[in-house]
């Protein structure tokens, strides 16, 4: 059974930091490109950051460049999102995504974790 389980969300003040984790199971994690995506109320889901299967390359949405860092530990089947200098506009549900890199399928989604940035 494939699972992606996110953790680490919560309430944080503007300027603060959070580290999200996503643990994968039931599939060969090291063959999958991973990404973090978010969806704010009333808005479409958007890509935040992505990383290749071996972790050699990553890319970011312009809105988070220089503030967020995506990383992965294939030995632990886990991908992380370090979020610094958080802003109220970062408030959203954050979802982990996995896509088999060589074929572009299958694709899996986690259940999401809420991040709220507010004073």
Description:
The protein is mainly beta and 119 residues long. The protein has no helices and eleven strands. The strands form two sheets. Strands 2, 4, 5, 6, 9, 10 and 11 form a seven-stranded mixed β-sheet that branches. It has a four-stranded antiparallel β-sheet with strand order 1-3-8-7, with no helix packed on it. The model has no long low-confidence stretch (mean pLDDT 97).
Total number of helical segments? Answer: 0
Order of helices and strands: EEEEEEEEEEE
The total of beta strands comes to 11
Low-confidence stretches: none
Observed structural traits:
119 residues, mainly beta, seven-stranded mixed β-sheet, four-stranded antiparallel β-sheet, 0% helix, globular
Give a topology summary.
Elements: E1 3-7, E2 10-12, E3 18-25, E4 32-39, E5 46-51, E6 58-60, E7 68-73, E8 78-83, E9 92-100, E10 107-109, E11 113-117
Parallel strand pairs: 2-11
Antiparallel strand pairs: 1-3, 3-8, 4-5, 4-9, 5-6, 7-8, 9-10, 9-11
Short structural description:
The chain has 119 residues and is an all-beta fold. The chain has no helices and 11 strands.
